[in-house]
Predict the structure.
Amino acid sequence: MKTILILHFGGDQIRGSEVCLIHSIHALHADGYRIVVLRKDPCLDEHIAGQVDVILDEGFPEIMFDGSHRAFPLRKYLASLRRLHGIVRQYKPSVMLCNGGLPCQLAVPVGRILHTPVLCHFHHPAPKRYFYIWLVKYVTRFMFPSNYTRENVAGKCGRDGVVIYNAIDVNARFIPVIEKDRHYRDELAIDSSKIVVGQIGHLSKHKRPDFLIRSFSNALKQSPNLHLVLVGYGPLYAELQSLVEAMGLQRAVTLTGYVPDVLPYYQHVFDINVLASSVEGLGISVIEASACSVPSIVTDCTGLREVVDNQVTGLTFEQDDQDKLTDCILLLARDPDLRRQYAAAARNKAVETFGLERYKEKILEQVSSLC
């Protein structure tokens, strides 16, 4: 039985990169691998229980020099290197899989010393210096979620790799419903007659929820039958609450905070999905919405260009064009036939391009080729 050691820094929530890792672990387990997971936060544990053999704690002390973000925890870093060296010698993995760039800072030196290949699933673009500080440039092989991320990495450190689009279960989980269950809107105190615009994601700067709120406010003035729902939590939560109050939007905007399951929002709450990010490796929330037959409006940038075909599966707008986003919201809100047309095309694309079985096959191909 071959062993794979997975290193994951992550955070305290299940987001796109964690979803990818969960799918990868399920594929590896089904293929007979012994799986050892070295992770910082236990949020993954319940999702991989029964799929992995060992789960180990690791703080991943990061050496970083990036403007005001400077850290040089040398003793902790060396102690982590020693621990990882011992783990690799104990479990003898055929491959170390780093879910993200930061874990490479530990995996690459140990991999070089013990001749263990390091496979990095690099989910998001990063500043050029990070490729050197994290030692990502020196991994054995890369996997990317989009052509955009692949080209970004190639331009910054001269390394190439394989593109494996993020995937979801389009057959049993993320599927359209024939009729919306009013219970979900009732819980949010949203009238069933409202056209609901929604964004799902971490409330962080690059997701630009504040940009969306301002565009939505302009749309609301022209079409009062709108409601905005922001699903998720993050560092901007309190600031966004204050913004909603300052703009007098308390009755038209709902901030849910963290929710354990986003599926009901796609199936029963949203009429229009939005992702107004300034940068995305791909944009898994858009794929999830598409699979549930919800049309999306996204920024015309980065990996988002690969998930929405403008005026086919949804609409796109230039990154800083707030008026254009407003226009897109109004166009879809006022034209239910157009929403249905884009929704059907979005569902077809999700099934054809972002299916889970294809993703799992490609992950297994990359891992097995290094064993």
Summary: Residues 105 and 135 are 5 Å apart (CA to CA).
